[in-house]
C-alpha cells in the first residue's frame, strides 16, 4: 500500500515526532517514508530526523497487517503540515 502527499512547508521536529509515534502504533507493519530520494523507516526517530527542514513530495508505504489504515493515518498527519 502506498500514497503520496505534498509538503509545502519545511518539516519541523514536532511533526517528525508525531509521525514516529503514529507509525509505531502499527506493530505488525513495516512503514517507510520516502522524501527527496530518501527512503526512511518511519518507526525510527533517528532515521526520521533526517527529514528535518525538507519539503516536497513524500510517499508513505506500508506492508503487513493493517497497512491501509497505517498509510491513511500517516498521510492524514502528513498533510497537517500544510495547515
UniProtKB/TrEMBL annotation:
It comes from the Bacteria. Residues 18-77 form the HPr domain. This is HPr domain-containing protein. Pfam families: PTS-HPr. Gene3D superfamilies: HPr-like. InterPro entries: HPr-like, HPr-like_sf.
Amino acid at each position: 500500500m502506498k500514497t503520496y502527499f505534498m509538503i509545502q512547508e519545511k518539516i519541523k521536529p514536532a511533526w517528525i515526532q508525531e509521525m514516529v509515534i503514529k507509525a509505531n502504533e502499527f506493530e505488525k507493519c513495516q512503514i517507510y517514508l520516502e522524501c527527496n530520494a530518501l527512503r526512511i523507516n518511519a518507526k525510527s526517530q533517528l532515521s526520521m530526523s533526517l527529514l528535518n527542514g525538507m519539503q516536497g513530495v513524500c510517499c508513505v508505504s506500508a506492508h503487513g497487517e493493517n497497512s491501509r489504515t497505517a498509510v491513511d493515518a500517516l498521510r492524514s498527519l502528513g498533510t497537517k503540515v500544510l495547515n
